[in-house]
Amino acid sequence: DPADPVNAAYTYGITLDEAQRERVVSLGSISYEPIWVFYRKSRMGTLDSLRDLLRHRVALGPKGSGSYAVASKIMKIYEVDIAGHDNFIPDDFENSARRFMEGSADALIIVSTAWDPIVQTLMRTPGVELMNFKNAEAFDKKDNSLESVRLPAGSISIYPQIPVQDVSLVATTTSVVVKKEMHPDLQLALQQ
Fold first, then answer.
1. Is the dihedral of CA 60, 136, 39, 117 positive or negative?
2. Where are the alpha helices (H) located in the chain, listed in sequence order?
3. How far apart (Å, rounded) are the C-alpha atoms in residues 42 and 155?
4. Cα 27 to Cα 8: distance, rounded to the nearest angstrom
5. What is the pTM of this model?
6. Nearest-5° angle of CA 33, CA 35, CA 38?
7. Strand partners, 171
8. Looking at the chain, which terminus has fewer C-beta neighbours within 10 angstroms, N or C?
């Protein structure tokens, strides 16, 4: 918003549309935020593709959140518009996680670090599976804001070992962006 006094923000690059990209400058990426797709194998079988989610109830972050925007963008790769699909249910993060844990949702998509309390809880919950993006490297080619990353076996917990084997994930980058008209000296100060 050109009228807003905020000059800098953290954002996921993939969430910005063309008009927004024209008004900001990225000062660089600071971290990877994996796209976590949790599901119950007992209800869904093995989840091999995001398109398999269409037949199930999927809890998401709230509309307007980075998680919702990223979920929307990656589902568009599969030609699915989540805004027009009743099985994709946006809500605040805690309600979405609770909906998934209580069984009124079959899957949960969240974008966050591995240390997020929701991710930590779900990684340790019996019966909850984390989708292995078998074609994670292909996402790199679809959008330069997406990266394939590997969650090594034992990286959440060495004992008991969580995950029990390496998992391929897709991540987006968190970037620091500023309005183009921000003074270059202030941009440099933020970079430092």
1. negative
2. 18-23, 41-44, 66-77, 93-102, 117-123, 136-142, 184-191
3. 25
4. 10
5. 0.89
6. 135
7. 34, 147
8. C
* 23-59 per-position pLDDT tens digit: 999 998 888 999 999 999 999 999 999 999 999 999 9
Give residue 14's identity as a one-letter amino acid code.
I
> Please, what is the Cα angle at 96 between 89 and 31, to 5 degrees?
105
CB of 174 within 8 A of CB of 30?
Answer: yes
Could you identify the residue written with the tokens 């990656």?
Answer: 74
For the segment 143-180, what is each residue's pLDDT rounded down to a tens digit? 888 999 999 999 999 999 999 999 999 999 898 999 99
Specify whether the CB–CB gap between 61 and 67 falls below 8 A.
Answer: yes
Helices (H) and strands (E) in the chain, counts: 7, 8
β-strand partners of 112: none
Dmax (CA) of the chain: 56
